[in-house]
Amino acid sequence: MEEKSSTSERVGQSANAMRIRSLRTGAIIAGRVRIASSLPALLRGLIGEPRLRPGDALWLDRCNGIHTFGMRYAIAVVTLRKDGTVLAIHHKVAPSRVIGPVRGGAITVEMLPETLDSGDIRIGDRLALETSP
Fold first, then answer.
1. Strands, E, within 1-133: which ranges?
2. Residues 105 and 90: beta-carbon distance below 8 Å
3. What is the Cα 15 distance to its own chain's centre?
4. Rg (CA), the chain
5. Taking the CA of residue 105 as centre, how many other CA atoms within 13 Å lie in the half-sphere pointing to its CB?
6. Which CATH number is 7-117 given?
7. Are 39 and 63 a contacting pair, CB within 8 Å?
8. What is the pTM of this model?
9. Average predicted confidence (pLDDT) for the chain
């Protein structure tokens, strides 16, 4: 069996580069997005992965709540409905914390706090996952 070595292969990523755009402002929130949709990728999340870079994000499909046990740095967490509507924003979640389920949540996005802060995201905004040009 071939060993997967790149972070994007371990976490999971579609064949095309993806990004997250705010539909309210048109701004690109994260220009490099990895997608976790399989059960192993969802369970693992960012644990054991190299530190995110500014502009990176992990899109956790069918995920409504996360933990940061095993993490070495704080992350920002955004919970979305299926249609991309922002339901909850956690600006700086320290390691060894739990963010519980949010009513109506279907997607969780993890990123560095500075990536979130640069994006001007608000509750009620809609975010879109799209293919990078």
1. 18-22, 28-36, 56-61, 66-67, 75-80, 86-93, 98-99, 107-111, 127-131
2. no
3. 18
4. 14
5. 22
6. 2.60.120.1140
7. no
8. 0.85
9. 86
